[in-house]
Design a protein that fits this description.
Elements: E1 2-7, E2 10-12, E3 18-26, E4 30-39, E5 46-51, E6 57-59, E7 67-72, E8 77-82, E9 91-100, E10 109-112, E11 116-120
Parallel strand pairs: 2-11
Antiparallel strand pairs: 1-3, 3-8, 4-5, 4-9, 5-6, 7-8, 9-10, 9-11
Length: 122
Amino acid sequence: QVHMVESGGGLVQPGGSLRLSCAASGIIFSIGTMGWYRQAPGKQRELVAEVTSGGTTDYADSVKGRFTISRDNVKNTVDLRMDSLKPEDTAVYYCNANVRPYASSRTPRVYWGQGTQVTVSS
């Protein structure tokens, strides 16, 4: 079993910054792509940013230039630095990871964090 624990959400004014962190723990042989998603009320969950084990990143157009994703392959963590926050960034943010629990595991399994609320409001 793998647990994903998030931290760092909260209330911030427009233009402000927040840093989200997520740590994976449990039975882990390797982790492939890790990412951050978000879900606003009444909307579908959407990809915010993701990073491969080799460090290649991808961002939603709406956050390019404002958000930065990073990971630590030794600590099995993924962070999301969010700058120039806007009210439309308000959502519950979820981290996820594609985990191979054993060397013999043929395909990775996706694990999700419990979600952390980010509210951007004056």
